[in-house]
Amino acid sequence: MLTNTGFPLGYGRRVLAEVDSTNAEAARIAKSLAGPEWILALNQTASRGRRGRAWRFPKGNFAGTLVLHPTETPDIVALRSFVASLALYDAFIACGVQAHCLALKWPNDVLLNGGKVAGILLESIGAGGSVGHLAIGIGVNLADAPAPAEVEVQAMRPVSLLSETGVAINPEEFLDLLASAYARLELQFTTYGFSPIRENWLARAAKIGEVITARTMASETVGTFETVDEQGNLVLKTTQGRVVIAAADVFF
Ligand SMILES: O=C(O)CCCC[C@@H]1SC[C@@H]2NC(=O)N[C@@H]21
C-alpha cells in the first residue's frame, strides 16, 4: 500500500543534501529509528562498495540505504540482498527499461546491456551475534558511470541508465519506484520465505548454465553456474564435482 505521497506505508524517508556514506549514516541513526527508513543522499563524499572498495558517486546518481530491524537469524537476514536485487530490477522495469536488457549477477549486482548499472552493500549494524539492524546500501548509475579505467581490471563494464537507455530519472523519483518495489518484495519474503524470491531471482540471473569464475582472496573456482541454493550460495559444477560458494566475486 502507498501513502498519498507515493511512498510505501510504514516506511520512513529522509533526503540528505550531502553525507559521507548513507550506510555510515544508517549505522549512526539505526538505534533511534522505530521502523524501516530509507536514507537518500543527493551527494555522497565517501561512498563505499563491497569488499572495502570505493564506489564512485557523481551527482545525479542514486545513493540510498534502507535501514531495517530484522529479527531473523543472520543467515536469513543476509538473503535480503536478493530481495533488494529484485526490487532494483522491478524499479528499472517501472522506469521503462525492457526486461531483456536487464540481468542479475550473483550475489547482488544489476546488469544493463551486460554492464554493471547498480550494486548493493549489505551491512549489519549491531553487537555480538545478533544482527540488530540491517543497512541495505544501494548505488545506481542513473546519470553517469565510471570510465572502465576507473574500476578494477576484469570488473564488469560500468554503465549508466541514461547512456544505455536514454531514460532520465532523478534520485528522488527513482527512490519512490525502488521503495514501492522493495516493500512488496519484503512482504513476500517475510510471508513466504526465500523460495519465491529465489525462483524469481534465478529467472533473471545472468550466465546460468554457462562457465563462470568465482574468486575469493584465497582461491579461484571455474565451473558451470548451476544454481543458487536455498541459502543463497552459488553452486558451480566443476571438474572436481559440485562446489558451493558462500561469498566471492564472480567474473564472466
Ligand atoms: O560494490 C558494490 O557493488 C556496492 C556499491 C554500493 C554503493 C552504495 S551507494 C549507497 C550506499 N552508501 C555507500 O557508501 N555505499 C552504498
UniProtKB/TrEMBL annotation:
GO terms for molecular function: biotin--[biotin carboxyl-carrier protein] ligase activity. Residues 9-190 form the BPL/LPL catalytic domain. Pfam families: BPL_C (PF02237), BPL_LplA_LipB (PF03099). Keywords: Biotin, Ligase. It comes from the Bacteria. InterPro entries: aa-tRNA-synth_II/BPL/LPL (IPR045864), Biotin_CoA_COase_ligase (IPR004408), BPL_C (IPR003142), BPL_LPL_catalytic (IPR004143). Its EC number is 6.3.4.15. Signal peptide: none annotated. It catalyses: biotin + L-lysyl-[protein] + ATP = N(6)-biotinyl-L-lysyl-[protein] + AMP + diphosphate + H(+). This is biotin--[biotin carboxyl-carrier protein] ligase.
